Every structure is written in structure tokens, then in C-alpha cells.
Write a sequence for this structure.
């Protein structure tokens, strides 16, 4: 296919230092010590920048005990660097790639969040993004003085107000507030400082923020919600939506729904990039890629895997024969129907044993693209053209090889087809994503 | 004086990007834009590292409106980078110098604080320090949902408990907890993870922390308290005390008091470094240095300066003749006696006009060493030998020149006398400061 001037994909890398997959630290050639080795993280982000990825996106957790101890002892996923300190460090070894940090609206203060993202945005010359999460894991509550986790709708209510406060604090100073006039002695013009004085149902914050307006006006807003309030919050506020549809029809439905809600909320739907999360495994053939995945899944310890399967089915799976398919006579349970039926269907479709199915769920389930670069490029092109995605939130099966395969084999194929940039055109993450710089709600630009 | 193998000074640089002095951004050759220019900060810290300073120490504020608007418009001191994001970035352009961040026990959560300092310590290979502050400024409360500031004794009570929780969280993992045994699939040994389960008067935190034990065991603990509860908290917990005595006799009394309290609390007094804060102005002569200071003070706008003088005297000073000495018949007021009498004495001693006195207070008062390097080195040696200090928290009048003068002229003189290191001997901040790595209270080291 010749290079076309049409729409291009956006690609962000969704990362944990060793990989999101719980078996990945045991995969041959991986770096089991990457959680506390900045050297590895530097090399990952520098490769992603050389491949012109839009952003490096760090997943996060606020607790260790979010899994049974038998799973915890096998897992590399929750004990690592804190996102702001990590991304600030990485901002100094990169120049263009975006830096997205996860931060919770349930267990932090808007003044701190606004300030840290503004600071990261200044330190990186306009590359920060905030992944707004409401923190679903009830164990986190116990690390922050609460016995009970805030319920789902209260968390989303607070999140919506939190967003208003944070963006309001980012607008504390007009872009031209700091005049620094040595002669007169005026450093900042008081009439260009806005005191927010927010008093709402959940939050009370005076302001102003003690940092100049971010380089990007506001750091880019990222969100992952798939639930009803999650979709609505995303439609009203997000500029990048990170979602988990199972297949293209589901993706198209979600895409249309969120863009429709955004339009209804008075937003330009082009200013929301919908980037489904997907695992990418490159092989010379589809079969080779599938073998890599089976091998990776097999590295998830059975103790961890079987508990994931039990949760998905809503029934204790530990008595099933691990080397046979799922029993046919599974009881009806209280598990979510989608989760239960999806799991059964997955087992049938890929002809998986209980062990393989459990390992898939205990490792990393969900959408995956497997095979040679040209086949995957064909598929991504269909997703882009048919309105299933504006790009992808890329996850790698294992590091560094899984990342190297994507940047060395898949990205060049996408670039050849004109589906992905060959170089950054702007300097800020907003520019990479085709997003406008927000106006300051309190100050009109002086011309 | 020949090189002696005796006790050496410790030097930390207490920084705001433009300088702590409110007039500094107007001083010839300064960088008024340093608050948002990482380039300048990189050059400052790299010069300090080349001079073998123990640490780079970032002052912090949690509000803008901690001064009248007439002072605020003239001030560069409160709008800048957030400390963790800044120091993490600077950790990547330095290798040995310590990185001390201010963090509040009143307006943050122990889980976040423990996690960020641990992360900074890992990212910097053992160079982090936590300056524990209780946040004295009542305006900060309003940025964190409270109408009323917590009172002094409650803040110190919370700070003491907060310290126990943070250090307890740092001890969540034994140093050898992460075994990463690819063969067996054990990433971390559950019996080497401690769940804190803290329930106290002020805080309730479950744990464990989701990051490995810091490289230094615990980041170095810094504190500034001079009040009664501040001194006691420092004696019980601090490893570096940053204080503000007016002169050597006051410094000796404070030094003896804090070391005595530490001994009474069962600590080794050698494991508390007492580092008075002082302004250093180098000149070829004392007179030249004094002229530099007068010039710098004159750059503090009279609007800001006079309100500082009024506060210090406890009476409205705006009606005084700016070009004459303080009136003799000042009324008795409710201002702190120390502050009022100290101000009057300072005006008499240096024969200052109202304008000069106001500018001194509005700029940067307190202890200062002025003059040629050999004279200052003589003085510092006396302070060290007579037990007034273990070193100094150095503040620079203006940047970069005030810093260049110290590192290029004073430090070599101190090194020549054997009073300051010529090279770092260790790699961590604890090693620079002669501090032991704390034992993990929950796990005995396996040998």
C-alpha cells in the first residue's frame, strides 16, 4: 500500500517495568530486576522514543495486598518506583515522548495532583499526561486511614469534581502573568493570578496553585473507564481513552458511544483519542506468535492462575483436571455474565485446557494481535479505517524482546504504509495527539 | 594551617531556584526565570557536586497566599517546581550529591510520603533525604479542605506519629525479600514482607509499602524545629538539624541542648549533624561583602520590606522616616520579645536606616558570614572546634555568582585546611554524613 496522507494511528506504551504480564519476569531474556533498575527503564523509553511513540504510560497501584499471598509471591507487578519520581527522572533522558502518570482522585489531594503534573509538564517541556483513576481496589483504602472503600458512584462523583478543581488550579496564572520586570520590581502581576475558592460537595480548595500554568496549558487527560459512569466521565473530560474491547465490533460500539457522548457534552469528538489496550506479539507466523504466548502464559504459576479462573467463572476451579478442557456442566453463578461466558467461549475458541485458560487469565487476557508485522498492520489498518480505534495502548508480552519486536518490526511496517509518523512534528504531547492547548478559563489571551 | 585528620564540616545548599532572598532576582547577573528553567538548576547542582557538597536541599511551600499581595507581586519565592519531580529530574544529571526534599506531615499521607522518598532513594542510588515539616503557614490549610490550621502541638503530635508510620513502611520488606527465583517462580518471599497495621491517635495505615526497602534503609531525616516540641522531635528523630541561631553562643546552647536530648532519648549524638543556616557572601574584603549585601537588600521593594519590619516590631512602621535610624521611643507591643529586641539591636549594631533594616528583614535576616575566604574559613573553624556546628546549611545571596564565589573561593580554602572533603568517600548521602544505615526493625539481617 502506498503512503497516504490519511489518518494515522496513535501509539502509547502501557508499562510496568518488567511487563504487565505476571509471568513475564520468568521469560527467557527478561529483566526480573527491572522494578528497581532505572537502567532498563531508560533503555525501554529511549527505544520507544526512537520509534516515535506518542507516550510512555505507567500503570500504578496503591497497595500490595490486592491479591492473595500465593499470587503476590509470584508477582512482579506491584512493587516498583512511584510514577512521578520515575517519569521525572525519565524526562531527563528523553526529549519528545509523552509521559503519562496514573494518579488517584480517591486517595490524593487535588492541590498535590495539580502541582505535580504541572511540575512534570514544566520539567519535560510539555509532555505530561494524567491518567485519572478512581482506584478500584478496596485494599488501597486501608493504606489511607479508611476502613471502607468509597463506593463506585461516590468515587466517580468525587473524580468529576476533582477534575474541575485540578484544571481550575492549572489556570491559576495567566500565561503572561510572570513579567519579571527587574526595573520596577514586579515579578508577577496580581491581576493575572486567579484564586479558585472552590467549595463543592466533596472538595474545598482555595488556590491559587503555586506553579505557573503548565506548558501545555493542561497536561493531557487520560482515562480508562468502561462502566457507565466511567464512559460518561471520559466523554466529558478525557482526551485519550484507554479501553479494553474484546474485538472490533465491541470496539466500534464503544467508540461510537464515547464519541457520541462527547458530542452531546458539547465537545469536539476529534479531541478524544480512543486507544484500545492490546497485547502485541510478533512472530514470523501466527503459529509462532501463538507459541510464544502459550510459553509466556505457562510461566504464570498455577497457584496464581487457578484463582484468576475461579474469579472469572464465579466458581472454585481448583478441582478441575488441569490438562482437560473446562467441564461442560459449569454451575450458574453470581459472577458477571460477560466474564463467565467470555471465559467459556475463549476456552472453546482456542481449544485451551483448564491450565492454559487459567494461565491466560492469570497472565494477561483481553485483546491481542499476534503474528507477522504485515498481518498485524493489516488488522490495525482495518480498526483505524472502520472506526474501532484512533490508535492503540500497546502492551508488551515481555521485555525487552517483546518491545524490540514491535519497534523494530511492526512500527517500520506501519510507517511504510503511512499509518504512523516517521518523526515527531511537534514538541509537546498535545501536538503528538493532535489536541489543542486549552484556553485559560479565567484569562483571555492578550494579543 | 596544615591539613589535619580532624573533624570536617558538612555543607548542604539550601535552595530556591532564584535564591531564598526576595530581592535576588533583580541582582545583576541573576536568572529571574530560574523558577521554571531546569537548565539553571542543573548547572547549580552540578557545581555543588563538583565542590563535594553533602546535599542539595530544596525549600518548599504549600500555598501562594502566604504573604500580602504587595509582597507577593515582588516575590519569586513561592512559584516554582514541586520538590519530588524536580529532585528526581536532578538525580539524573548528578551522581553523588544528596537530594533533600521538604514534605509536610500535616497535609499529606504517610503512604504517599514513604513511597515517594523510597522511590527517589532508589532512583538516585541512595541519595534521598526527607526534611520533615509540619507546615506553619495557615494559608496552606485552605488548599487542603480545611478552614482552620491544625494547632502547633497537634501538628507536632501528628508529625511524631507520621515519622513512626513512614519509617515503619520503609521497613515493609527485608533487604533480601526479593529473591526473583525464575526456576521456582518465587519473586518475593511472603515471610519477608511485614504488614504494619498501624492504628494510632492520628493515623491508621495498613501497609505494606509497595516498594522495596530504600537503598539507604531509610532516607536521611532532616528537621528544622527550634521551638520546644521542634527540638524534641529533632532529638528523637533527626539526623540533620537545620537551625537558625543568631550567633556562636546561641548556636552552642542549641547544639548542646539537642545533642543532650538525643542522648537522653537513647540515641548516639554523633548521629545528629547540627547545621546552622547561614548566608555566605564572599568579597575581597569584609567591606566589599557588606556592600554586596546592602545592594542586594536594596533590591527588596520597600512595600515588601516595610511590612516585614512592622511584623518584627509588632507596630506599624510605615510612618517612620525611611532614611533615618529607628525612632528611639518605640511602643511596647505584643510582638515576640526576641524578634523586637533583636531587630532594634541589629539596627543599632550595623547603624542601619529604617529602609536598610526593613530591607534586611524583607530579604534574608539571620546568621551571615561575610568577607574574604580565609576570614570566613577562620570563623567556620571556630564554630566547628567550639561545638557550635557540625557544618552549615549554606544559603547563597544570589545565583549564580553567590554560589560560584562559595564553590570557587571558600570551598578550596576549607579543603586546603582539611576542614572539608576533597572527594566523596562513599556513594550514599548517609555515607557523606557519617550516618549508619538503620536496621530493619522487623527483620534481622541474615548473614
Amino acid at each position: 500500500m502506498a503512503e497516504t496522507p490519511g489518518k494515522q494511528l496513535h501509539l502509547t506504551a502501557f508499562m510496568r517495568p518488567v511487563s504487565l504480564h505476571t509471568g513475564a519476569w520468568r521469560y527467557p531474556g527478561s529483566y526480573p530486576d527491572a522494578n528497581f533498575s532505572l537502567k532498563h527503564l531508560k533503555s525501554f523509553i529511549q527505544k520507544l522514543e526512537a520509534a516515535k511513540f506518542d507516550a510512555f504510560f505507567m500503570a500504578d497501584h496503591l497497595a500490595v495486598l490486592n491479591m492473595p499471598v500465593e499470587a503476590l509471591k509470584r508477582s512482579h507487578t506491584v512493587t516498583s518506583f512511584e510514577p512521578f519520581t520515575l517519569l521525572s527522572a525519565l524526562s531527563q533522558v528523553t526529549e519528545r515522548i509523552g509521559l503519562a502518570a496514573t494518579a488517584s482522585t480517591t486517595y490524593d489531594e487535588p492541590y498535590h495532583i495539580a502541582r505535580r503534573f504541572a511540575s512534570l509538564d514544566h520539567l519535560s517541556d510539555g509532555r505530561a499526561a494524567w491518567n485519572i483513576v478512581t482506584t478500584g481496589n478496596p485494599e488501597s483504602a486501608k493504606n489511607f486511614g479508611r476502613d471502607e472503600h468509597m463506593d463506585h458512584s461516590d468515587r466517580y462523583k468525587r473524580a468529576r469534581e476533582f477534575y474541575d478543581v485540578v484544571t481550575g488550579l492549572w489556570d491559576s496564572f495567566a500565561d503572561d502573568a510572570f513579567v519579571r520586570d527587574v526595573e520596577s520590581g514586579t515579578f508577577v502581576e496580581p491581576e493575572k493570578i486567579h484564586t479558585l475558592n472552590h467549595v463543592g460537595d466533596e472538595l474545598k480548595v482555595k488556590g491559587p496553585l503555586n506553579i505557573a500554568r503548565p506548558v501545555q496549558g493542561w497536561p493531557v487527560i487520560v482515562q480508562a473507564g468502561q462502566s457507565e459512569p466511567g464512559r460518561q466521565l471520559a466523554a466529558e473530560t478525557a482526551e485519550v481513552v484507554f479501553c479494553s474491547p474484546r474485538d472490533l465490533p465491541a470496539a466500534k460500539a464503544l467508540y461510537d458511544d464515547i464519541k457520541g457522548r462527547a458530542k452531546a457534552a458539547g465537545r469536539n469528538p476529534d479531541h478524544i483519542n480512543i486507544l484500545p489496550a492490546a497485547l502485541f506479539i510478533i512472530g514470523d507466523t501466527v503459529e509462532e506468535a501463538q507459541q510464544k504466548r502459550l510459553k509466556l502464559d505457562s510461566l504464570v504459576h498455577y497457584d496464581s492462575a487457578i484463582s484468576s479462573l475461579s474469579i472469572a467463572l464465579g466458581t472454585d476451579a481448583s478441582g478441575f483436571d488441569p490438562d482437560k478442557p473446562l467441564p461442560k456442566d459449569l454451575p450458574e453463578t453470581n459472577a458477571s455474565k460477560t466474564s463467565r461466558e467470555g471465559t467459556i467461549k475463549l476456552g472453546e475458541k482456542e481449544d485451551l485446557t483448564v491450565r492454559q485458560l487459567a494461565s491466560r487469565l492469570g497472565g494477561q487476557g483481553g485483546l491481542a494481535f499476534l503474528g507477522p508485522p504485515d498481518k498485524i498492520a493489516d488488522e490495525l489498518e482495518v480498526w483505524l479505517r472502520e472506526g474501532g480505534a484512533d490508535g492503540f495502548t500497546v502492551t508488551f508480552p515481555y521485555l525487552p524482546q517483546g518491545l524490540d519486536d514491535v519497534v523494530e518490526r511492526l512500527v517500520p511496517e506501519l510507517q511504510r504504509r503511512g499509518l504512523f509518523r516517521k518523526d515527531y512534528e511537534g514538541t509537546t504531547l498535545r501536538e503528538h495527539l493532535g489536541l489543542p492547548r486549552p484556553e485559560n478559563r479565567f484569562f483571555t489571551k492578550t494579543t
The mean pLDDT of chain B is 92. Chain B touches chain A through 74 residues (CB under 8 Å). Chain B has 14 helices and 14 strands. The first helix of chain B runs from residue 38 to 50.
